Structures are given as C-alpha cells and as structure tokens.
C-alpha cells in the first residue's frame, strides 16, 4: 500500500517558497464583452444548473488557494434574498496596480475575461479554474457583487453592478488577517427561470470538495429562513477514503471488503489518488476528478484506472490459478459492484470546454495505469482474503454475462422464427422516420385503449404495460431477457440491449413514459427509468426518454373546461371560472389515465401542441442514480430516511 497520504499530496501542491503572488502574476488574455450576451458559453445554461455554477466558480478560487497551501477554511453562506457570500482565509487577491491594465489587480480579476494567476505565472501550481474566467463571469452575470480583500494590513473593498464599477477599489479599514470575501446576487435579467438556490445541490458539491481536499474545512450555512437555519461543517481528514464510505452509507450498500483500498502516487508535478471498495450491488459508481473538478464524462485518468484494474484482476487470477485457460474477465466484470473515486491534480489540465466534462491530458493515462498496476497487485498479494472476495465477485459477473449471452442468442432465434417480431400489444405508427415518431409506454390496458383511440396514428405508437415489472436494481442483464414486461419495451424500441445495443436502430425519436399521477404510477415510472438508465443508457444520454404529464384535475363550468396539473393551478382555475358572482364550478380528480376518454387524453397529454412532457437528461439520470439505489435496493433504513426527508414533495412528484 502506498505510504503517501493526502497531506503529502497537499504539500506537493504548494508553491516554491521563492515564488511570489502579487499584481505581476495577474496575466490578461482578452476582454469580457460577450459574457452577458452569451452566458451559456461560460456557465452551461441560464437555468438552475448555471445559477449554481456561479457559486462553484467562486468556491473553486478558494479551493485553489487550499491546493496552493494557503487556505484551511472556507465559509459559504446563502443569505436572505438568495445572496451568496464566500469567504476564505487564503492570501487575499493582490490589490496592487496591474502593470499593463493600470488598475488594481483585484479589479482586473473581476472585470477582464481570462485574467488570473493560473496561466503559468507562478501564482498557482495546481488549479481547477484553468480558464481564468470564473470571477469575471460571476461578476458579469450578477446584479451586484461586492469584493472584500484582507491583505494582513488593510481591508480593501470594491462594488460592481452587472460587471461594471463606478469607483476604484479602496481601503476601508485595517486588519491583521488575510483572505477574500465575495458577496453577490445573481442577475434575474440573466437567470429568468429562477435565482433561488437549492441547499442540497450546493451541499453535495461542497461535500465533494471537502472529501477531495483532506483536512480543509468548509462551513456551509443556509440563513434565508431565520427560523429554520441549516448549517454543516464539512471536514474529512480521511479524504477520498471517507468519500467512498459516504457513498455506501447514503445508498445503503454493504461493503464486501473490510477497508477502502487507497492508492496514490506522484510523477513530476502531477499527483493521483484513488480509493475504491466493492459492495453487494451489481452497479458500478466511478467518480473522477481533475484538480477538484468533477469530470462527469471521464477522461484519461478514469481510463487509466479502468485499464489497470482489469489487467491486475486478470493477472492475479492467472498467477494463482484461479482462471481457467481461455477465460478472461472483461472490464464490466471486474467493475461490477465497485465504488471508486479517481482524483488527479495537474499543473496544466486540458479540459473539454469551460464546463470541464472530460480530462484530455494524454500523459495521465499511462501514469495512473502504471501506478495502479504496480500498487494494486502488491496490495492484493498482501491481502489474499480481500483479493479472493474481489475475484469471486468478478467471476460471478462473468458467469452472469455468459448467461446473458445465451439468453440473448435464444431471444434472437425466437425472434427469427416468429412471423412478427414486434410485441403483440404494440399499436405501431405508420411513419418510419424516427425524427418524428413517438412511442408511448402506457400503464394499464384501459389507459392503453384510450391512448390507442386518441393518438395520431401516423406518428404515435402505443405500448400498454400491465402490472409491476422487474426491479433491475436487484437484477443482472440475464434476468431482463426472461422478463415478459421489459422485453416488449426492448423489442419495440428496436435497439436491443447489452452488447447488441445499437442506437442507429432506434424506431422512435421520443420514448414517453405515461403513467397515472399516483403512487403506483410513480413506481412504474421509477422502474422504467431505472431500466433505461442501467441497460439502455444511451437513450438517456441522447435525449430520447420523456415523461408525460397528465393533468390531476378537470375544472369546468358548463362548456368552459380547464385542466390543472397541480393543486395551485386547480384553485386558480376555480377562481377564474367562478367569476365575481361565485358561480358553481365542478372539479373532477383524475385517479388514473383510464378515467379520461380518448379526446381528453389527446388534448391534455398527447397533442404536441398542448401537452407538457419532461425530457430526462443525463444529469437528471445521474442524480436519480442515487435515488434509484436507495428506493429500489434491499436496505430499509436508507429508504425510510429518504421518504421521510422528501415526503413534503410527494404531492408534486414528477417522477
């Protein structure tokens, strides 16, 4: 096992004592003109995702100070009015006059795009804010921003409004401390959908940062409601080891080995650390990070780990005679039931785009691969009982894969012998171009009958489902091939699953789950989403999965009819239709889709011109991944805690 711990890694990231961090380190690349015109280019979107990204950018600057060895505590507050305040005890942004811009270096950082100490000037050896746009973009997209810098002698202050300032930075007091405080209010002109922050979303991100930077303390507080203040201190000396344990605890997974395996190493200015442990599930969870940025799409560091893991487990089996001649474990076999954190810290990260979804540095893969190959084999040889547990689980996955192959071949032969391979209950559409076609997966024969009668037969196909289907969270793929509820879905989609999956054969551009707006309907939706996420994930990734939104109420007075999708909307329509005279208004509560006749179902739920459907994005699905594990797994306590915590949202549950 590697003797290098997280503190060594933090020390390695420190700047050499001879380097300075002052106004000369702030380098300017270009201006800030386009940010307010095209904010999506810099923060991904102007919806909730982009709103929360503003906080990440400012916190990342403080994290960079921690990586440089100058910050030990970060305080993040959500203040009344959804104002964000981020404070750290780092060195404080330099306030001297910038040699080129002739204004304070701090002002340059907050008003000029691509300005910062992260472009090789010596200010930072390791940084997540590679592109240097974070501070200036947040400023540009804020209604107002206030910057306070403590340099150990003076307190400096400057206020900006929508990225502009009316007066230069000024000294407002004396101090003996150092650090930076940034307070800002997101601009509603940019974030038209919402400027309200989700405490849980921010908490998850900040907890990740605390895990990835062992020893740093992040204090996160929600002060918007004085009677219900929420606050957490995030401080993990165990670093990413505790990250793995946390994931298992939250999801209610049982570890199969007594400890989290931890490996780390250094090559030049680059460091890597990996922590992983196997659990009793069939699903893999691998989270990779580069300079504390979650690389959601993986990259060279994640590839290096996966390659090495597969090689080591195979080599171990051959070395100790545990693998039969000709047998070979694939990557999917050795990763079944693994929870892993892969974190690298580099001087120059090459990300794909400002949202940093994938690490591109080619030199990282052989570095990580060699490190894991050597040190993991040593660990397994020193811990034979752990090695045998991992190997046995991998072999069980291999056998399940072989069983799935046989089941798949049987399914192929069966389909070839049948005169019609499409499901018998499928009411297909006449159009064949999947640019226009839609498949409605409908709960129940009654609702299916209404949907068949009310649909647009040219473009819309209907597949009724009946009863509860297989919970794939507790099943491997070989069980799917035998399931009479799921295989019709697979056959109708046309893509197959597993090794045979081919999105080019997709028969419908939109696959729409349409279930009742009750507990059973919610369960059906969850089961289907779990299935698509686990076994046909590319359909989610490429935006083909949708959820229909049938109305909850029909509100009517005579021939005036309104359909309400929430209690609040129902009350609004009652008020509208009753008028000033308080005329009697009738309200019908739809208990199921089958209560609507074909015309009503078409008008409310299936007509492209009037319906509401929700597209399931990969981000939605990844968030749901944790929920699926909790709700559909075997452990009762995590499920009970989740339900109790989220019970207040049940009436408006969309999925």
Provide a concise account of the structure shown.
The chain is α+β, with helices and mostly antiparallel strands and 655 residues long. It folds into four domains: 6-235, 2-Layer Sandwich (Heat Shock Protein 90); 240-401, Ribosomal Protein S5, domain 2 (2-Layer Sandwich), CATH 3.30.230; 425-550 and 597-652, Rossmann fold (3-Layer(aba) Sandwich), CATH 3.40.50; 553-589, no CATH class.
In words, what does this structure look like?
Helices cover 36% and strands 20% of the residues. The protein is an alpha+beta fold and 655 residues long. The protein has 4 domains: 6-235, Histidine kinase-like ATPase, C-terminal domain (Heat Shock Protein 90); 240-401, Ribosomal Protein S5, domain 2 (2-Layer Sandwich); 425-550 and 597-652, Rossmann fold; 553-589, no CATH class. The strands form 5 sheets. It has an 8-stranded mixed β-sheet with strand order 7-6-5-8-3-2-9-10. Strands 11-12-15-13-14 form a 5-stranded mixed β-sheet, with helices on both faces. α4 (105-111) crosses α5 (134-140) and α8 (300-319) packs parallel to α10 (364-382). The chain is flat and about 75 Å long.
CATH architecture of the largest domain: 2-Layer Sandwich
Task: From the alpha carbons, calculate the radius of gyration and give it in angstroms.
Answer: 28 Å
Please give the order of strands in the largest beta sheet: 7-6-5-8-3-2-9-10
**Overall pLDDT metric:** 84
CATH topology of the largest domain: Heat Shock Protein 90
Tally of helical runs: 20
Largest sheet: 8 strands, mixed
CATH class type of the largest domain:
Alpha Beta
Q: β content, as a range?
A: 15-25%
Structural class: alpha+beta
CATH superfamily of the largest domain: Histidine kinase-like ATPase, C-terminal domain
Whole-number total of structural domains: 4
Provide the low-confidence segments as ranges.
1-18, 118-123, 416-420, 646-655
Estimated helix fraction: 25-40%
Number of strands: 23
> Which of globular, elongated, flat, extended, rod-shaped describes the shape?
flat
How far from one another are the termini?
A: 44 Å
């Amino acid at each position: 096992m590697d003797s290098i711990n997280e503190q060594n890694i933090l020390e390695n990231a420190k700047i050499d004592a001879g380097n300075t961090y002052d106004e000369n380190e702030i380098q300017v690349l270009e201006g800030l003109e386009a940010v307010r015109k095209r904010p999506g280019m810099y923060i991904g979107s102007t919806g909730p995702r982009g709103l929360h990204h503003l906080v990440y950018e400012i916190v990342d600057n403080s994290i960079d100070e921690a990586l440089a060895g100058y910050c030990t505590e970060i305080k993040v507050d959500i203040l009344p009015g959804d104002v964000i305040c981020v404070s750290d005890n780092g060195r404080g942004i330099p306030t001297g006059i910038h040699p080129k811009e002739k204004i304070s270096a701090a002002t340059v950082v907050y008003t000029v795009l691509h300005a910062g100490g992260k472009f090789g000037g010596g200010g930072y050896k390791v940084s997540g804010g590679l592109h240097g746009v974070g501070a200036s973009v947040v400023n540009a997209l804020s209604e107002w921003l206030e910057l306070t810098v403590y340099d150990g002698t003076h307190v400096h202050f400057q206020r900006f409004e929508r990225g502009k300032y009316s007066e230069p930075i000024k000294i407002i007091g004396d101090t003996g401390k150092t650090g930076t405080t940034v307070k800002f209010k997101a601009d509603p002109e940019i974030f038209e959908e919402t400027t309200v922050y989700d405490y849980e979303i921010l908490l998850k991100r900040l907890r990740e940062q605390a895990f990835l930077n062992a020893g740093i303390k992040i204090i996160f507080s929600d002060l918007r409601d004085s009677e219900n203040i929420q606050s957490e201190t995030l401080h993990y000396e165990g670093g990413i080891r505790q990250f793995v344990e946390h994931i298992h605890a939250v999801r209610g997974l049982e570890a199969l080995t007594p400890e989290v395996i931890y490996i780390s190493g250094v090559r030049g200015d680059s460091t890597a650390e990996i922590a992983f442990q196997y659990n009793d599930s069939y699903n893999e969870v691998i989270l990779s990070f580069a300079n504390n940025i979650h690389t959601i799409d993986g990259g060279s560091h994640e590839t290096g780990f996966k390659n090495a893991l597969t090689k080591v487990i195979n080599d171990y089996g051959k070395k100790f005679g545990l693998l039969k001649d000709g047998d070979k474990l694939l990557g999917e076999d050795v990763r079944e039931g693994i929870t892993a954190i892969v974190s690298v810290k580099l001087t120059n990260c090459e990300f794909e785009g400002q949202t940093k979804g994938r690490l591109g540095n080619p030199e990282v893969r052989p570095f990580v691969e060699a490190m894991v190959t050597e040190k993991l084999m040593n660990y397994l040889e020193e811990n034979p009982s752990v090695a045998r547990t991992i190997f046995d689980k991998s072999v069980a996955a291999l056998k399940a894969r072989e069983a799935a192959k046989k089941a798949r071949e049987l399914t192929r032969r069966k389909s070839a012998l049948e005169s019609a391979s499409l499901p018998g209950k499928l009411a297909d559409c006449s159009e064949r171009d999947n640019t226009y076609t839609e498949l409605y997966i409908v709960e129940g024969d009654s609702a299916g009958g209404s949907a068949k009668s009310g649909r647009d037969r040219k473009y819309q196909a209907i597949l009724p489902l009946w009863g509860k289907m297989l919970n794939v969270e507790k099943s491997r793929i070989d069980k799917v091939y035998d399931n009479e509820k799921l295989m019709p879905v697979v056959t109708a989609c046309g893509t197959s699953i597993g090794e045979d999956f081919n999105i080019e054969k997709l028969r419908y551009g939109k696959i729409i789950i349409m279930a009742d707006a009750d507990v059973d309907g919610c369960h059906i939706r969850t089961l289907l989403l779990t299935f698509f996420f686990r076994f046909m994930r590319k359909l989610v990734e490429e935006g083909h999965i949708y959820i229909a939104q049938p109305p909850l109420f029909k509100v009517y007075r005579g021939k005036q009819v309104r359909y309400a999708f929430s209690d609040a909307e129902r009350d609004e329509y009652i008020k509208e239709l009753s008028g000033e005279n308080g005329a009697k208004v009738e309200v019908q509560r739809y208990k199921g889709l089958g209560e609507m006749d074909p015309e009503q179902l078409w008008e409310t739920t299936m007509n492209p011109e009037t319906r509401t459907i929700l597209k399931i994005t990969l981000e939605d699905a990844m968030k749901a991944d944790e929920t699926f594990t909790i709700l559909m797994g075997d452990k009762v306590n995590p499920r009970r805690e989740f339900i109790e915590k989220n019970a207040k949202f049940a009436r408006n549950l969309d999925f």
